[in-house]
Amino acid sequence: MNSSNPALKGKLFASNDVQIGIDAKEASRIMTIEGTVRKTMALIFMVLFTGVLGRMFIVANPAVSVSVGPMMLGVSVVTLGLFFLMMWKKEWAPVLAPIYALVEGLLLGVSSIFIDMQAAAQGLGSSLAFMCILGTVSVALSMLALYAFRIIKVGERFRSIIAMGTMGFFVIYLISFAMNMFGFNMPYIHSNGIIGIGFSAFACIWASMKFLTDFSAVEIMSDAKAPKHMEWYMGFAILTTLIWLYIELGRLALKLMSRD
Known about the structure:
- The protein has 260 residues and is mainly alpha-helical.
- The chain has one domain (6-258).
- The chain has helices at 33-60, 68-88, 93-121, 128-148, 156-181, 194-223, 229-258.
- It starts with 32 loop residues before the first helix and ends with a helix.
């Protein structure tokens, strides 16, 4: 069984990664949906906490913004390293997931200032980042309702399609990130032309659909009585989907605004 989230792919559902059939008496050592919700909310709070701190620091020290570019690049490398490390060592999730959330929150908090600055330059106020947060939360809750009430059924074929598409986006992002490190930009997808806007719009739709397979993975793992550390891992996986959608909503909005 596969999820569309790269963090939920591979051998996640294999018996050597998840010990299927754990004795029900060991409830404190078994993953539950309720526990996963608590871990996910804790990670989201960590992101918001460091995000606010990072934003407040830059606002209070505007001179630092001149050198914030290299700092953000370094933080991006750290978060990417944590991402791959957690995919490799899922049992480390109780430690690595909070670290990832705190570091990622700092990155998002600082970048939110530049999102708002670009929006303000277009004469559209300075609250675009906040609107993207609201949009992300609204989409996530909507997709949760669609899944919970089985309005959209998540089957094996649906999981496979979302998985292949998500991995395609993931590869594109990795290539783009590598090119940016050497001073190059991937053509078309970052522009405000039809292709660039279409790419971001499609990414937003795909990220929204990916929530469904993430929720399904949580349910499957809970039913399979996965080890307790998988609550943190699943929380991390859902968090990556939330962050992806937030970033793409911001990019889409900036592209649309820059066309006016």
